[in-house]
Design goal:
The protein is α/β, with parallel strands linked by helices. The protein has 19 helices and 28 strands. Strand 16 (414-416) and strand 17 (423-425) form a beta hairpin. Residues 1-11, 140-144, 358-363 and 618-637 have low confidence and may be disordered.
Length: 685
């Protein structure tokens, strides 16, 4: 901890100097400065006039480097080790202790885990102050007795479901990798686990990927706990409402919090259970520095607070498989007999029997199997059609040589946004009138990637009597009735159907499996299983048709409904190749000369390997090209490059320390050139 007092306060002529507080006059302040070399507390004196308001955890204003700067009062002390004179606090913004000791520990741990700064993490963890919301009194916490322990409900279908709930009720800390059964009862299962923790007087925190998921969990929690016993946090809330709900949790008025990604830092009191649904969804990965993942943050909280952990979904990630293999978590799933009663029948349009019947099934976008399944299912209820891309035609190519059409201004992909609309660039929006193929000189275009709206038009022509609805982008449908209809949706925007879908068509599998991404197979399987889980069981006629080669491992995992074996295969392959989560890896992205200079200054732990640097494409810095807030502006005379630093899993902490130290050196030199450092990024290839 630094004992530096920072610059002195400047007082006007004739003004009497402030008098230090009589009791514990030194304030240790986390100043809101994201510079890596200043990532430490600073000591200030507390004026006697502010002594009562200056409580640990409150927001303050201090003079730092000649400017008034926000900060948080971490603690008060009797003396400072700084030999010079200390500046005084300028102001206590609010005496509300928003930075609790638990949250301060978590923010520091996350910053150290991801080679970030405490200031960056606190911006993610604590919402902006809303004075009107803060001034309103929060209702007192519900009096005892605690809610009664609920019946196991959906957990009766899982082999160790009852045992997990018993351990939570007893105050123990079981950790489960949950393979959820298909269907719409997963919010109820989460609510039962949360209510079990609440019945033992413990708090609970639930994190889900999207607002639609949160609405389902919120409804299930209200039905089981009753009104007023939990709060739901999401980015859709206004500043006042979001801050009011956050304060309700911080003040202990409620002990159960549910929310999307930002809720991973929510101040749930007496934490006894953390829940993460669908941990493979990339929405759980923060887009801002230091880029923490909700799974890692909740795991840190569970370990520190001695809380139970329930992490899972319909599919399984390699990261959770690694945690199971390491003994941190145990698998929690149903036996095969129960699973068989719940899953739909899954057919691949590219299997041998279908190819014998329909030779075009290998290349047709809607082969006969898909059309037959949709036609038969429409007599029984709605049919879900999953399309990987939104829009009309998301990518076009030359009709003669099939080379993808690129923008002549920025090199971005060209797209068609309406049937007779103009062709525009998806990156810069530049119109491409008069486009000519640079390879063959052709001027005709053809669709390479068809979006949801174009798919809806095609299905409308194929099934003129059926209603067609589109869910995706800015128009997401929450739920559809049991009436026959074709529901075209992008991944993550699939609405639940009353009674389940009669069938699902998973189109354009190549668009998911063919991505240049280490996680392409895992992500494709996750999206397929999330859609297939909404379909009725095979005993009720439910069928899923995936338009892909039946021999592909991900397709076989879907047909067998066995994501665990597929995840174990992925983990073994990554271990053999030396990729996360079998190892820890950091990416360093920026102008080529900056990356090379940064790598030369790293003091890496034993066993570290540096891969690259190699050139990267447009917007490689992420964040829309903005980079980290403290990383300055990009250079104009160098090519963006990226290097990967790989270490064994046991060397993760030394790697983070080495990266943080190198970033601090750059920051102290006031290097203005942009550089992005990210540990265990989702995208590696």
């Amino acid at each position: 901890m630094s004992q530096h007092g920072g610059p002195r306060s400047v007082r006007r002529a004739g003004q009497q100097p402030p008098v230090p507080a009589a009791d514990l006059p030194v304030a240790r302040v986390a100043v809101d400065v994201p510079l890596a070399h200043l990532d430490r507390p600073f000591d200030y004196l507390i004026p006697a006039a502010l002594s009562d308001a200056a409580t640990p955890g409150c927001r303050v204003r201090v003079r730092f480097a000649g400017k008034l700067t926000d900060g948080y009062l971490l603690e008060r002390a009797a003396a400072s080790g700084h030999p010079g004179r200390l500046a005084f606090l300028q102001r206590v913004v609010s005496p509300e202790p928003v930075l609790t000791p638990e949250l301060a520990w978590l923010a520091r741990a996350v910053a150290d885990r991801y080679a970030g700064t405490l200031a960056d993490v606190l911006r993610l963890a604590i919402p902006p102050r809303h004075a009107a919301a803060e001034s309103k009194p929060t209702a007192e916490a519900k009096p005892s007795p605690q809610p009664c322990r609920p019946e196991p409900g959906p957990w009766k279908r899982y082999r160790a479901g009852a045992a997990f709930l018993t351990a939570v009720a007893d105050g123990r800390a079981p950790r489960a990798a949950w393979s959820a059964l298909p269907g719409n009862d997963w919010p109820e299962a989460i609510a039962v686990a949360v209510a079990t923790a609440a019945s033992a007087g413990r708090g609970a925190l639930v994190v889900v990927p999207e607002a639609g998921d949160l609405a389902r969990v919120d409804s299930a929690l209200t039905a089981l706990l009753g009104p007023g016993r939990h709060v739901a946090l999401s980015a859709d809330l206004g500043p006042a409402q979001r801050y009011s709900r956050w304060l309700a949790a911080a003040r202990g008025a409620v002990r159960v919090v549910a929310g999307t990604r930002a809720a991973m830092f929510a101040p749930a009191r007496d934490l006894g259970l953390v829940v993460l649904w669908d941990d493979g969804d990339d929405l759980h990965s923060e887009r801002r520095s230091p880029y923490p993942h909700a799974r890692e943050v909740l795991a840190l909280r569970a370990h520190h607070d001695g809380a139970a952990a329930l992490i899972g979904g319909f599919s399984r990630t390699a990261e959770m498989t690694q945690l199971v293999a390491a003994g941190w978590a145990r698998p929690l799933g149903a036996d095969r007999a129960e699973l068989s009663n719940r899953v739909p029948a899954v057919r691949a349009a590219g299997d041998d029997s279908e190819l014998a019947r329909d030779e075009a099934a290998r290349v047709a976008r809607l082969p006969s199997l898909a059309l037959r399944a949709a036609r038969e299912a429409l007599g029984r209820g709605p049919v879900l059609v999953q399309v990987p891309r939104r829009g009309y035609i998301a990518a076009i190519g030359c009709s003669r040589c099939r080379r993808p059409c690129r923008c002549t201004e920025c090199g971005g992909p060209l797209a068609l946004h309406a049937e007779h609309g103009p062709v525009n660039c998806r990156w810069c929006g530049h119109p491409a009138a008069g486009w000519r193929c640079p390879r063959c000189g052709g001027t005709g275009i053809r669709a390479l990637v068809t979006g949801a709206r174009r798919t809806a038009e095609e299905l409308g022509r194929a099934f003129p009597a059926a209603a067609v609805r589109v869910s995706g982008g800015g128009e997401v449908i929450g739920r559809v009735p049991a009436a026959p209809a074709l529901v075209v949706a992008t991944p993550g925007a699939e609405p639940a159907a009353d009674g389940g879908y009669a069938a699902a068509l998973l189109l354009d599998a190549w668009a998911l499996l063919g991505r240049a991404d280490l996680r392409a197979g895992e992500e494709a399987l996750r999206r397929w299983m999330n859609a297939a889980a909404l379909v009725r069981p095979r005993g009720e006629g439910g069928i899923v048709v995936v338009l892909a080669d039946a021999g592909l491992p991900a397709v076989q995992a879907l047909i067998r409904w066995d994501p665990v074996t597929q995840a174990e295969r992925d983990l073994a392959e990554r271990a053999e190749l030396g990729f996360p989560p079998a190892v820890r890896m950091a990416s360093v992205t920026g102008d080529g000369s900056v990356v090379r200079e940064f790598l030369r200054g790293l003091e890496l732990p034993d066993g570290a390997e540096i891969l690259g640097p190699v050139p990267v494409g447009r917007d490689a810095h992420g964040d829309g090209g903005r980079g980290d807030a403290s990383d300055g502006a990009p250079g104009d005379d160098d090519t963006a490059q990226r290097a990967l630093v790989r270490v064994p899993r046991t060397a993760g902490a030394p790697l983070a320390h080495a990266l943080a130290s190198a970033k601090a050196t750059r920051s102290a030199r006031k290097d203005p050139r942009r550089l992005r450092v990210q540990i265990d990024p989702l995208e590696l290839i």
